[in-house]
Amino acid sequence: MRTRLFLSLLLAGLLAFTATATVLGQVPGPALNLTGAKKQDAKRRVSVKVQCLDQDCTATATGRIKLSGGKSSTVAAKGALKLRPVTKEIAARIAIKLKPKITQRGHRAVRKTLKQGGTAKAKVTITAVGANGATSVGKRNVVLRLG
Predict the structure, then answer these.
(1) What digits encode the pLDDT tens for the residues 36-86?
(2) CA neighbor of 59 nearest in space, from 22, 27, 96
(3) Which of 31, 52, 81, 112 is deepest in the core (most CB within 10 A)?
(4) CATH for 28-145?
């Protein structure tokens, strides 16, 4: 009798703990490993290598490019340019390159700013959703240069 009561209380406690952890968002997301060159040529894409270490995941790469310096005639130099998002499914412990695209207008603005002596810095944000639905976010900064 005591054993059954103990087991039922233990089971109820475990169920309450897992329900609380799920409600509060304490389920850990996939562990991310982000690599890639920190300085890249100003092409139409920015490359980041993504690896989910502990589980299969779906990773999305987005980001912005911030332009500074150069002549003030560069219209896009006053704000940030968006990168087009890219989504891929990644198996556990397999590294895959995600390459969010720079728009054609943005690419022209980046090249013009760099030719005028300015700088272009991309901040790529990787959002990974694991098999259990939990998310992890990682960021990678890349400096663009004329190539």
Answers:
(1) 999 999 999 999 999 999 999 999 999 999 998 877 555 544 567 999 999
(2) 96
(3) 52
(4) 2.60.40.2550
